[in-house]
Amino acid sequence: MEDLLKSKKGVSRTEISAGIVDDAQRAQERTWELVAENTRDIAWLMDMSFRTTWVTPSATRLRGYTLAEFAEMTLAEQLEPESLARAMALMAKHLVPEKLEDPGLDINVSALLGFRCKDRETFWADTVITLLRDDEGRPTGMLGVARDVSERRRVEEELQESRRRMATLLGNLPGMAYRCRNDRDWTMEFVSEGCRYLTGYSPEDLVGNRRVAYAHVIHPNDRERVWKEVQRAVAQNRAFTIEYRILPVDGRRCWVRERGLAVQDPVGAEEALEGFIAEITPLVDAEGALRESERRYREMFRRLPIQTYTWRLVDGEFVLEDANEATRVATSGGIDEEFGRAASDFYSDLPEVVAEMHRCVRSGEVIKVERDYQYRTTGKVCRLVMTHSFIPPDLVMVHADDVTQQRQTEDQLRVSQKMEAIGQLAGGVAHDFNNLLTVINSYARFVIEELPVGDPIRADVAEIERAGDRATALTGQLLAFGRRQVRRPELLSINHVVDGLESMLSRLIGEDIELRIRLADDLRAVEADPGQVEQVIMNIAVNARDAMPRGGKLTIETSNVELDRAYAARRVSVSPGSYVLLAMTDSGHGMDARTRDRIFEPFYTTKEKGRGTGLGMSTVYGIVKQSNGNIWVYSEPGLGTTFKVYLPSLEGPTVRRRRPAIAERPTGGETVLVVEDEDAVRRVTRRILEDAGYVVLTAASGDEALLLMEEHAGDIHLLVTDVVMPQMSGKQLADRLGQSHPGLKVLFMSGYSDEAVVHHGVLARDARFIAKPFSFAALTRAVREILDAAVDGAP
């Protein structure tokens, strides 16, 4: 310094010092200029009225405005509205007179602000504004520094959107997503909201075992099996799928299916288990198989059972972004070719769908619409319930629930209601008319058989019979009016259907019900929809199971039967011919006459609320009638129930030849006592036997039969009695008469099948039996066989 001073001859020491200060100041200013020109942050000066007086060149690079434009812009013109409001609130809080007037107080304001840009999106920056003072502490302006955080904010928004989407999906899934440690307690680290509905516990209860360990939610009989299967899968480095029982808080019976996977860290060490648990109780009961196998968000989304699409709003147009596995199945994989396609093109024939998506975005509401939709790839037309949900900021998720079958069922129910209305309108007239037709047709047949061929009266009576047949058919058409079910008939064997359902039926009815199956070896084929036949069997089996809460027996039988014209005349809508009989009998509590009469009515049920809809048997009735068959029910309180289904049989390449439709009717002259409490059946039975040459005595009850036996002077060779009668059953009557008439032969008859009657314990296995309804030939043949066996000394 001294050398410098000495070199400045003629210059005072004061002048030299001032020059040195000016040089240093210029160097410092130049340094700050270099910093301002090269910094990636934006710095600026404002006066106390918030006008920009200076700004670094980086502002032009980052925000697009020139330095001159910055000088003309107010703070309100520089900030986005929300950021301006935030900045003004902070200024109002800190730039108050008492703080400004305190010269020793440093004022700094920090905030995340969005700055307007000239040619790009909002410039987001962490901003610090510092109050500047002069040497005397008076405020002279403000210094602002802003650091660009736009990219960080974009990543945060995408992460937040992903979390929202994950929360929306997991919150609406019918099950529970989880992450847990692989320990004996299954210590949960994460559980979705679905656990509330599945277990009754909240996520807070299960995470960290704060209230209960998930291991204790698993049924104690299943815990060890579940643990071993999971450990086996972990050891083999594979996913696992397990079905087991849990113990929900409400105590209900609950089966679940769990699919999970061991998640490993980068070095291959086991870290945790992740997976999804869904309730499958209805599927277990119905032998269904809905597989929830997703282990992460993408898997769960793609395998939702409802068709699900995601549409992203791009420049005012919705673009198909993704679709789940159910959608691929419905479109036969064709949906994969549609990704990236605009909704206006995809729904070109349904522009209202696009309008609904826009409305969903504008309102934020969930929009649900039901409509018919034809798949572009398969041409199949389905009834869909489409639900639109907006996931901010630009995603719409569409669920398309196929309710085609449900709506078809509802249509069938409306038809059933219409049929019920017709039945109510016809009322007693239809019932009486059918009874009259039965009498007219039966006695017309009796007259025809008694008149010789060529008798002119025979032709007149035949015309009466034909008119009765036409009236019977017309009544049947009226009562069957309006049935509309889709059928896919094929030539099939009922035996094959029963065989295929045997294991499922065993599980359906439970271990406490014994399943007995008796199938005819030479069963003829029928033309029917195999799925509908399975539904008939399953529905009747469910009814049987509910009728035997403490266990019992369910018997299924098949046989070939011949229904002649006389039988058809007693049953409205029945045509004579060859049929296959499917009989299902349970040993349950049975039904009274009122319940029997209404069993096939839609919505009629004897089960408590919530246990049945009353649609099962009406569905069975519709299927059988549409298959040109018939179904009858026989039941008495305490004696179980028999359903008999008759389907027209067909000859096929693998079916044995059936016997001629008209069988021989053997005759006789012995005396037969007929005991039957139904007047019409008793009269018809008497007429058949008398036409065959027998001497027939009749009684309406067991007591009347005992009195008649005492008063009758001659021999009585055979007792024909109904099994189920008021006051005294046919079995009791036969036992009492057997004591006084040891040689008396007995033929039992009943609406129950012979297998069911025997196994109910009503009759001995070697008892002679004929099932109602029976034809002329069947009854006379059975009577003749018993009487001839008696003559030969057979038992």
Mean pLDDT across the residues is 78
The helix count comes to: 29
What does the radius of gyration come to? 45 Å
Number of strands: 27
Please characterize this protein's 3D structure.
The chain is 42% helix and 24% strand. It is an alpha+beta fold. The strands form five sheets. Strands 16, 17, 18, 19, 20, 21 and 22 form a seven-stranded mixed beta sheet that branches. A five-stranded antiparallel beta sheet has the order 2-1-5-4-3. It is elongated. It starts with a helix and ends with a helix.
Concise account of the structure shown:
The protein has 795 residues and is of the alpha+beta class. It has 29 helices and 27 strands.
Secondary structure topology:
Blueprint: H1 2-7, H2 13-38, E1 42-46, E2 52-55, H3 58-63, H4 67-72, H5 75-78, H6 81-94, H7 97-100, E3 108-115, E4 123-133, E5 139-148, H8 150-172, E6 175-180, E7 188-191, H9 195-199, H10 203-206, H11 214-217, H12 223-235, E8 240-246, E9 254-264, E10 270-279, H13 281-285, H14 297-302, E11 307-314, E12 317-323, H15 325-330, H16 343-346, H17 351-363, E13 367-374, E14 381-391, E15 395-402, H18 404-450, H19 456-479, E16 490-492, H20 494-509, E17 513-518, E18 525-528, H21 530-546, E19 552-563, H22 565-570, E20 577-586, H23 593-598, H24 616-626, E21 630-635, E22 641-650, E23 671-675, H25 679-691, E24 695-699, H26 702-711, E25 718-722, H27 730-740, E26 745-750, H28 754-759, E27 769-771, H29 776-791
Parallel strand pairs: 17-19, 23-24, 23-25, 25-26, 26-27
Antiparallel strand pairs: 1-2, 1-5, 3-4, 4-5, 6-7, 6-10, 8-9, 9-10, 11-12, 11-15, 13-14, 14-15, 16-18, 18-22, 19-20, 20-22, 21-22
